Amino acid sequence: MRPLPRNTKILFFAKHCTEPYVQIITVHETKQWQSVCSSEEEEPHGDDLEDLLLPELIDRSDLLGEIQCQKLANHLPARTQGNPWRLAYSTAVHGTSLRTLYRYLSSLDSPVLLVIKDMGNQVFGAFSSHPFRVSSCCYGTGETFLFSFSPDLKVFRWSGENSYFVRGHWDSLQIGAGGGCFGLWLDADLCRGSSFPCQTFNNQPLSSKKDFTVQDLEVWTFSSREI
C-alpha cells in the first residue's frame, strides 16, 4: 500500500481492493458537511470569515454584494464549487414574466440560485438543485434550500419531513410546502410573492412581510459554459 498524503482521511475500503478510497478533507469541507444536519444555519463569524469562498461572477449582480456572494457560496453544494456564476435571468434585463423565466432556463442542466429583493430592500431567495420548469409534480433534491439576509444570512435546509422542493406552474412558482403554506411563492408576473413557515425547510418567513412585493429578481446558474 502506498503511503497516504498528508491531510487525508480514509473514508472506507472498497471490497476486494488493497487500496483505500481516500479524499482530502479540508477544514472548510468538514464544516460544510456538519452543517447539513442543521435546518437553519447562521452566517460564519470571526475567524470563519477567512474561510469564505470567493465565487467568480461572469455578470454583475444588482442584488448581491461581494460579501453576500461569498457567504452564499459557502453554503452551496460541492458540485457547484469552482464553476462561475452566470446570470440566467433578471427582471431588470428580461422583464417581469414567469413564462420568460422558464424559457431562459429551459436549456440549463445545472442548479440555480434565485435571488429576490423586495420593496423593503430585504434580500432572500432559494437554491434549487434543478432549473425551474413547469411540472405536474414536485421535483428537486435535498440540496435545495431557502435563505434570507435579515440582515445576517440564514440558511434553511431540507428538514426531511417531505419532498415538496419545487413545483412550477404557468401562473406561479412554489418552493417548499406543507401545512397548507409555501416556503416561497411567486406569481405569474414575478411582482408579488409570499413566504410562510413550511414543513419542507422548517423555515422562518424570508421577508419581513409574509406577503411581499418584488422590487427585482435574479436567477443565477453555475455552468462552465455560456448560456
Automatic annotation (TrEMBL):
Pfam families per record: TLD
GO biological process entries: regulation of transcription by RNA polymerase II; response to oxidative stress
Limits of the TLDc domain: 62-223
Signal peptide: none
InterPro entries xrefs: TLDc_dom
Highest rank taxon of the organism: Eukaryota
GO cellular component, one term: nucleus
Protein name per its UniProtKB record: Nuclear receptor coactivator 7
Gene source species: Paramormyrops kingsleyae
